[in-house]
Every structure is written in C-alpha cells, then in structure tokens.
Write a structure and sequence with these properties.
Layout lengths: L5 E3 L8 E2 H25 L6 H14 L5 E4 L2 E5 L2 H12 L3 H31 L3 H12 L14 H16 L11 H43 L4 E3 L2 E3 L5 H13 L3 H18 L11 H7 L7 H15 L7 H17 L1
Parallel strand pairs: 2-3
Antiparallel strand pairs: 1-4, 3-4, 5-6
Helix pairs in contact: 1-2, 1-4, 2-3, 3-4, 8-9, 9-11, 9-12, 11-12
C-alpha cells in the first residue's frame, strides 16, 4: 500500500493533475490552515470572525477537492480527501477555541504526513527504477516474517508420550480376533478386562491433566505475555518493559515537581496504555486522542470520564494558558475512577 490516503483505481484517460501540482496545493492548504489558527488566536481576545473563516475554508475546498485524478510515473491515482471537509465542518461547528485549535493542528499534521509520502513517491520516480528492481523489492518484502506461512507444529513431548503409550497399549492388548464358539466366555472376559484397563488409564491421564494443566498454562501464558514490543502512543515511544502503573507514577512525580502540563500528558498516555492492556482499545501509531475517544463510544460506563480527561489533556497540552493544580487533581481522580471500572 503506497499511501494510506490514496487508493489505486483503473481510470479512463482524462485531464489529471501532476504530482508536483497536487503537492503545491497541499502546501497552499497548509498555509490556509495557519491563517485559521491565527484567526482562532485572535478570537481569544476579540470576537470570532466567521466571515473570514468561511472565505478561507471556501478557498481550501476549491484548491483541494474531495477527490481528483493525479498522474505520477507509477500510474494514475485518485485522491481521497473527504477527511479534510469533515474536519473543517467540525471546526466551523465547534464553539470552544481550544478544541478548534486542536482540530486545526490535527489537519496540519495530516497534511504534513501526506506531503512526506508524496516525497517518498517522487524520489524513486526520479531514479527510474526498472521492473526488475520493483520485483526484487517486492520479493524482499514477501520474505519478511509476517508474510511467511506458519511452519507445521512439531509434536510436543506430551503428545509424543501419548502416542507412544497408545501404541504400547495396542501391542499389549491387541484387538480380539474371532474365536470359536467354545471360547466365547473367555473372549468376553478378556474384553471386559481390556475395557477396565482402558478406563483406568484414561482416568489417570484425565487426573494428571486436571492436576497439572493450570500450572503449565499459567507458566507458558506468563512467558507469552512477557514478549511485548515497543509501542508508540501520541507520538511518544513507550518501551516494551514500561507499564501503565510506571507511566502514571512518572506523571505524579512531574506533578509534585510543578510540571503539571507534562504530568497530564504523561497521565493521559498511561491511561491509553492501561486501556490497551485491558483490551478496551487498540493502540496505533497514527491514532490521535480523538480517535481513542471515538473507540470508547460504546463503553457508556467509561465515556464520561474519558471525555473529561481528553478535554483536560487537550486544554492543557494544546491550550494557551498555564496549567493549574485543580486540572491535575481532576485528571488524577477521573483516571483512578476509570481504571476501577474497567
């Protein structure tokens, strides 16, 4: 997948923009977003200039439509910029200045990411890679571990013991062969003895499984849980050995030192880490705090606290005023209450 915001389609030969033209309009859109941010900052002092905002948004929609065809050396692609119109609508309808600034900041970050992806597309196009080079690169990707077929599971020690025990039973107590009528009573007795022995052996195996299976499952399950990898939450890399409790302890230390803004951010990351460990949400490098809030929409018992902590985080991390002690105390109380409900 070349770009998360583009999808490859088979199209007719129509008038299309070049990759350079599309990138220039992305840059122009970024400058318009900066103008809207400036308008938000001025609105903190005076009245909100909705006429100026509407004019800028109209220009953005004109320069960057929801979809258009773009030609590049690798073929033709169609853009999918519906997200921009959606976020701009959220911006227009949002009365809170801090939240409006957060929305615009998110748009700018996404535009920058798209521009970076276009640079990655243009650089290979400049060197003109051959089809053989493309095939070689594809082969290298397919050799990665995640694309390999799972290897056939080897027989475990317990499975081998079980197989050998069953084979031994088959040798010791073979299936009874047809016997003359005179030996009918003896054959019946032998069959009963075989059934009793099989029942005793199976009972013993069942008891051993019942007795030791929880211990083995706990031991191997603990090893599996220890195989964690680093995570990236809101742009911050969290080591595989770092826990949510450790992150929140770090937040409390920052709060005691008076760094309330950093404490609330660290506490919010600890919250997302804890919710992920408890399988409430899924972490992803590209997700924003608003994406995680949407993931919690079905948890009616947690959404109120989650919404409050998200607003607290946005107000203090992206806001224009200094953080206060009551902000941290409110965040800490909501955090502990949320964790107790999970």
């Amino acid at each position: 997948m070349l770009l998360s915001f583009l999808c490859l389609v088979a199209v007719h030969k129509v008038e299309a923009a070049t990759l350079d033209e599309y990138q220039q309009r992305l840059s122009s859109t970024g400058r318009h977003i900066d103008q809207l941010l400036d308008s938000v900052a001025k609105a903190e002092i005076g009245n909100r200039d909705t006429t100026r905002e509407s004019g800028i948004i109209t220009q953005i929609v004109k320069e960057l439509p929801e979809t258009e065809k773009v030609d590049w050396p690798g073929g033709s692609i169609e853009t999918a910029n519906q997200w921009l119109a959606r976020d701009l609508k959220l911006f227009q309808n949002e009365p809170d200045a801090v939240k409006r600034a957060v929305i615009l900041t998110g748009i700018n970050e996404r535009l920058a990411a798209i521009g970076k992806k276009i640079d990655e597309l243009k650089n290979p196009a400049a060197t003109g890679p051959s089809k053989d080079e493309d095939k070689q690169k594809l082969a290298e990707i397919l050799r990665r571990e995640e694309y390999q077929k799972p290897q056939a599971k080897e027989e475990s020690l317990f499975q081998r013991w079980k197989r050998e025990f069953i084979e031994w039973l088959a040798r010791v107590f073979p299936s009874p062969s047809p016997m003359p009528a005179s030996g009918t009573d003896f054959a019946s007795l032998k069959l009963v003895l075989q059934i009793i022995i099989y029942a005793l052996v199976l009972g013993l195996i069942g008891f051993l499984i019942y007795r030791f299976a929880p211990f083995l499952a706990g031991k191997f399950g603990m090893r599996a849980k220890q195989k964690k990898t680093d995570r990236v939450i809101l742009g911050e890399r969290i080591g595989a050995d770092e826990s949510a409790d450790g992150l929140f302890s770090e937040a409390e230390r920052l709060a005691r030192e008076g760094n309330l803004r950093a404490a609330i951010r660290k506490g919010y990351i600890a919250l997302l880490c804890e919710l992920s460990d408890r399988k409430v949400i899924g972490l992803a490098r590209h997700k924003t705090n608003r994406d995680y809030l949407r993931d919690m929409s079905k948890r009616t018992d947690l959404i109120e606290n989650m919404n409050g902590m998200t607003s607290n985080f946005e107000r203090n991390w992206y806001g224009l005023r200094p953080s206060e002690l009551r902000d941290w105390e409110d965040f800490r109380d909501r955090y502990k209450q949320t964790i107790s409900l999970v």
